[in-house]
Structures are given as C-alpha cells and as structure tokens.
Amino acid sequence: MQLADPVAPAQRRLARLAFLAAAAAVLLVLAVAGVRASLLLILVAVIGTVVALAAAWWFLTHRGVLRWLAGVVVVLAPLVVAVLFARANLIWVVVVFGLLWTAAVTAGRRALALPPPGDGEPGPAETPAPLRPYLIMNPRSGGGKVERHRLAERARALGAQVFLLDGPAVDVAEVARQAVRDGADLLGVAGGDGTQALVAGIAAEHGVPFLVISAGTRNHFALDLGLDREDPAACLDALTDGVELRIDLGLIGDRTFVNNASFGAYASIVQSPAYRDDKIGTTLDLLPRALAGAGDRLRLTVDGATVTGPQAVLVSNNPYAADDIAGLGRRHRLDGGVLGVLAVTVRNAADAAGLISGRGRARSLTVRNTGEVVIDADGPAVPVGIDGESVVLPTPVRCEIRPGALRVRVPRNRPGVPPPPPELDWARLRHLAFGRSSSEAGPQPAR
C-alpha cells in the first residue's frame, strides 16, 4: 500500500500561510469594496492592462507618429486605472492586496522549494592541476577587464602561458589548436562568450580541460558555471586549486556554442552595422520590420513537428528557466543532455498581450527540450546570433547537443548556481497544507 508523501512541519506551515495570505487578500477586497464594486474594479484593471499591452505592441511595430501615440497610451493607461482606484478611495486596498498576495506567493514557493540538486547529478571531479596551461585573453573585452584586474600578470605568475589578442584580426581557433600541438594541457579564455565558445570547441575536440575567466561584458556562460563575475581573477584559482565538471556543448553546423543560437528578430537586428554603437535606437528602428515578419520566413522543425513563421527562435545549450522566454536569465544545469528550444510567434496585439500576461503562451510560445532541431527559411541563408556574435549560415541550419563533450576546470570555491525556484503549483501546495503526511498516516497493515 502506498504511503502518503512525507511533509516537513516547516513545509506545512508555509503552505498554510500561503493559503491564509491569499484568502486574506481576496476577502479584503470583497469586504471593503463589496462584490459588485470589486468585480467592476477588477474589470477596470483588466481593461487597463489589455490597453497598455496592445499599445506597447503598436509602439514596437510602428514608426513615427503612431509609435509615439502608442507610447503615450502605454503611460496613460495605468495612470487612468490608478486615478479611478484613488477616486474610489481604494489605493490602500490595492497596496495591501499586493503585499498579501506577494506574501502568499513567497510562502508558497518556499514550501514547494526543492532540495539542492544532487539526485544522480554528477559532482565535480578531482583532477591534477594542469602543467602547461595556455590562456587566450582579449584586452578589449568587458571594457578592459584584463588590464584592470591584471589577469595576464597573475596568470603568468601561476605558470600559465598567455596569448593577448592585441592587433589585427586573429584566428583564435588556430591559436588554440597550435597551443595544443605545442603541448598545452589546458585551454582558457578571458573574453566574451563568442570567443569562449570557439576555444571550448577546440578543447572538446582534443579532450583537454577548459578554463573560463569572467572577463567579458555579460559573462552568461560564467554565470551558469557558478563563477565569480565580479572578480575575474578569482577564476584563476582553478589553475592551482580546481575541480572538473563535465558539461554539454551545442553544435550549430560545424560550430560550437556554449550559451545559445538565436534566429529571427534579434539575429536580424544585430546584423546591422549601427547596432554596436546605438543598440536601443537601432533596435527600435528595425523591430517593426522584424516583428512584421519581413524578410525570409522561418520554419522550425522539432520532434517531428513544424512551426511556420515564428518571429524569433532561441536554441540553447540546455534549457533556460521556465519563465525566461528571452534567454536573459540562467540555466540551472549544463549537463542535462538536451537543447532548450523557444519559438515566439506573435501575429497581433492580442497574441502579444497573451504572451506577456502568460494567459496566451500556449498559442504564441513553443517550448521544447530535444536533442536536435532544424531551422529553415525561404532564402538560401539566414542571420544567426551565436553566443552574441552575428553570422550568416546557409539554410537549413541544424542544431544538436553534444552531451558531456567539454571538461571545464573551475575553482574549488565559487559562488555556485542556486537551485531553480519551483513553479507555484496550487494543487501540490494544497496537498502540503492539508494532506496527510506519512507520519500522520500511521503504520500500514501488512498485506
């Protein structure tokens, strides 16, 4: 006979607190405003939200006078809602409701929080320190972090050979290959994620460990490895006191990626020569055409199904958090053996509002975890952003996962990657709050 799931007392208290706070929030609105007024105010809030989201879509998809009129509506819609609530003397109710609901969500997530990862997940491996480490450093990356943190001097003091990317265009992949031919037993990079990906592919090809030094601008790869992004020099500790992780690599054509490959709107925008000097202005100027589906229409084939006409596709080396539809957050694992696939198909303002609010995501958002995905287009080539670098690849473009392909050497002591926050599952929360635990169920009769 199956026993009830064990429930810790702290979990039970937090789950009950979540339900109590949620009930108090609802009862507060009903008690102060009454059922009829409450429904009217909720309707006003919903209409204001829909109008604001629709105006935001118009702002992104139009230029000139229409764009700025839409921008005015984006600002005015929530202000009008706030004025209506103020005239009904209910601003304080909204504030208290928000606080109670925040408390409910926070308590619920804490009650549902999973234990730290470790269920069969391999931990770091003890391996000997490298004897001939070879580090490639880009002095211009991250606004000059290599020089500011004296990374080259510190690395040389630890016995590493350092190659500075200082001068005309350098074939980074060939530099890394030559280093291995000369006897390097570790390759490392202090630079952006695009350079990290190129050298990581060479390290995986030759079976030598790879060292990430967080000297780029955003350092997404370092973030997901749990490295210190504020102090790049701390990454050098791996040379003398480090451990090894086995992680996956993404493969797009014959090129590796450590973070993601993006197609569609974003990839088209970063192709513009003006993007590097004026990111916001260039994005606003080119978004209307990109979101309208101008250019070669994309086709995404994953798990035997085809999605036609998505405006944006993101293929990542392991999936991002479930609530991160832009790939701007973090991945909690890099050894899951799957690609994360996100495709956004927005045809009108209603789709955009549903995507942002979460109620229409099933229609506009395709989410898959898979081993292989193919992106095709009407034209012979398609722009792709690979780990933040813009390239053009011939169609169709095939992306694959290479499980456990890369040995990464990291410092023994590092900030680490926090466990992912659980989704707020009210059914499971109800079981925690009011269901019987195994201790409460008592001994079960033998059968």
Automatic annotation (TrEMBL):
GO terms for molecular function: kinase activity. It comes from the Bacteria. The keyword NADP does not apply. The chain crosses the membrane at residues 14-33, 40-60, 66-85, 90-108. Keywords: Kinase, Membrane, Transferase, Transmembrane, Transmembrane helix. Residues 128-256 form the DAGKc domain. SUPFAM superfamilies: NAD kinase/diacylglycerol kinase-like. This is Putative diacylglycerol kinase. It comes from Actinoplanes missouriensis (strain ATCC 14538 / DSM 43046 / CBS 188.64 / JCM 3121 / NBRC 102363 / NCIMB 12654 / NRRL B-3342 / UNCC 431).
